[in-house]
Amino acid sequence: MIWCCASRNDGFPVRQSDGLVRWRAVKKTRRLGSRRSLIAVLLFLGVACAHAQPIVIGSKKFTESYVLGEIAKHTLNDAGISAEHRQGMGGTIILWQALQGGQIDAYPEYTGTIVQEVLKTERALSLNEIRDALTKFGVGITEPLGFNNTYALVMRRSEAQRLGLRTISDLRNHPELKFGLTHEFLDRRDGWQPLRARYALPQQNVIGIEHALGYSALASGSIDVKDAYSTDAKIGEYDLITLEDDLQFFPRYDAVFLYRLALPAPAVAALRKLQGALDEKRMIRLNAEAERTKNYTRAANLFFGDDRASTMAPGETFFHKLKRWTLRHLELAGISLVLSVIVGVPLGILASRGGTIGQAILGFAGVMQTIPSLALLALLVPLPFFGISVRTAIAALFLYGLLPIVRNTATGLQDIPRALRESAIALGLRPMARLWQIYLPMASRSILAGIKTSAVINIGTATLAALIGAGGLGEPILSGLNLNDHATILQGAIPAALLALLVQWLFDLLDRVVIPKGLRL
Amino acid sequence: MSALVQLVDVSKRYGGAPALHSTNLTVERSKTTVLIGPSGCGKSTLLRVIIGLTAPDSGTISFDGSQITQANIDALRHRIGYVIQEGGLFPHLTARANILLVARHLGKSPEEMRKRLVELCELTRFSNNLLSRFPIELSGGQRQRVSLMRALMLSPELLLLDEPLGALDPLVRASLQKDLKEIFARLRQTALLVTHDLAEAAYFGDGIVLMNGGRIVQQGSINDLRERPVDPFVSEFINAQRTLAEI
Hints:
The complex is a heterodimer.
Chain A: H1 16-28, H2 34-48, E1 55-58, H3 63-78, E2 83-86, H4 92-101, E3 106-110, H5 111-118, H6 127-135, E4 139-141, E5 151-156, H7 157-163, E6 179-181, H8 183-187, H9 192-199, E7 206-208, H10 211-220, E8 225-229, H11 234-237, E9 240-243, E10 255-260, H12 265-272, H13 280-293, H14 296-303, H15 318-352, H16 355-370, H17 373-380, H18 390-414, H19 418-426, H20 431-442, H21 444-461, H22 474-483, H23 486-514
Parallel strand pairs in A: 1-2, 6-7, 6-8
Antiparallel strand pairs in A: 3-10, 4-10, 5-8, 5-9
Helix pairs in contact in A: 1-2, 3-14, 13-14, 15-16, 15-18, 15-21, 15-23, 16-18, 17-18, 18-21, 21-23, 22-23
Chain B: E1 3-14, E2 17-28, E3 32-36, H1 43-51, E4 58-63, E5 66-67, H2 73-77, E6 80-84, H3 95-105, H4 110-124, H5 140-152, E7 158-162, H6 170-187, E8 190-195, H7 198-204, E9 207-212, E10 215-220, H8 222-227, H9 232-240
Parallel strand pairs in B: 3-8, 3-9, 6-7, 7-8
Antiparallel strand pairs in B: 1-2, 1-4, 4-5, 9-10
Helix pairs in contact in B: 3-5, 4-5
């Protein structure tokens, strides 16, 4: 299990096995009351997320970044420095924020991206200018690793030959072509809009599509042109051609490592060994190897002249991985659900009284649910307490889970007939006794239905936690998506669906325990 | 003559519409006082004001000599029983749990509660072995008996009944009327009963209070109302309730 923050604490190394042991210890003391065990869980998370010892390398969500991350880890390990690689954490902003927040110590980046996205300037900067600018953020930069992975527009070779297209300028005469571009490229300052303006491209049919899916779309003819990285192994694999950037629009994207200046000198020295060590041809080969074998560690080992299969992934069986994913998934969904219940039911009780406060509570919970889950994760990442961590995933799931619980609690309470509500008052029961003995039991069916909805939603949404490296069943889905490998996607998708069904079934059983018999007749 | 409840100048408006004009009423100890009148005449409002479900806009209500306030209403509610038309039983609690709810809340001893429950079952002619049933498993008449037991559990000085028999069929209604009257007599119970049925009012009422449009129109015995009506409305109300013989 990747206790992504567990391995980052000071003087109290909590590793996966310790975590499990402690989790079990918590379960054994259930007699002490569920409140205590919950506090223990929260404390555990807090302690686990404290601070760092091994060097943490981050990578973006595409093959080359994964491979470079593995290479960095390998290099550090060779230098006797303990390092771990948190794969595929997301896009530039998430990685940059994580680096600044100290959740990661280094990650592979490209000079063009640094200038455009991080420093946000239109000017072409020299490497020294970039280095000076980054120092202000407490971030250092290595020399280029040796290859330029710039953006490129790619097409099917057959289609390009049929239309006689060779350069990006040639696209001007073919307004009917369909473009499928990554979301990042669509929004980048060096992306689609300025490119379109520079070349005066007439195409109107432009959609945003995930990078790996875009290749399938291109192969199947759903789109005709997509953005790619010039060292992308898929260019060869799908028999695509790169359209020449005849107006020199794309800036240079020399691969470098960014690292925190606070990093110990030996670690920096180890990373600097990679400077100038990777040319384009070699990188394309490593990328191709990674995609062919679905194994980034193996591709990285190839760089070190070590392609023995025995040194690839430490022999983790599928069932072992499945167990790891599933446990983490349940942890994410479970803790967030417990928090949603603890907060959601009292909020629902308040909301049931109506008035401004009630409206505000229901409004807040409603708005939370309308924020796309991906956006919610991205919004939480820059906040000081959260960053790239399990906490962020749990917080996002918690916010998602609130609405069904708040709304069902409020509705359940409001649906209690007035005559019964007044009977409770007329009997002279104190407000707390009315709530606990009369109102909540009567609303229990509705409240439980809300919790059930939240639980099932959480199981599904928790797959997105993998986007910020929080693990769970989203991990295989994400790598499968990235590798365009359906079998891997299903390894995550099927267990997640089964888990949702199981949870639903367990809640149906719970109905019989929690809902008073008199309400079930 | 001793008054248990005294309402002085009590009035209530809902929105702009007056539900109760300035009203005075005295509820005598050990008597059954019946509030009667057409729908919306304010008779239920009067009951609700006494038990504190509706706060009056003006006037004072005193119970056993002391004025009812927000501070003492919860304690006073334990000295007042309240029965409504649908029974007001909590569906998630068994008949027994409904009856014992407040006694448990007040921490009465199990022995004391058990003894009282036996007494109440005997008093209301309710079979012991129905006590573990849920309200939905009981007939309408059985539910009203349980509701009555719940109201009588703490031996309240005052019993308020808001159309307690209104939803029952005539046979069940007749037998419950008879039982209720016996219970009131046996307990020398002070009761304030709301009904719109004149025969029921005449059957129970030591004193009848006829209301209309948020005011008390006339108070007295059924004979007073029939023979000395103070207002054409009184005669109209009495004549509207035909007996079988007239048809």
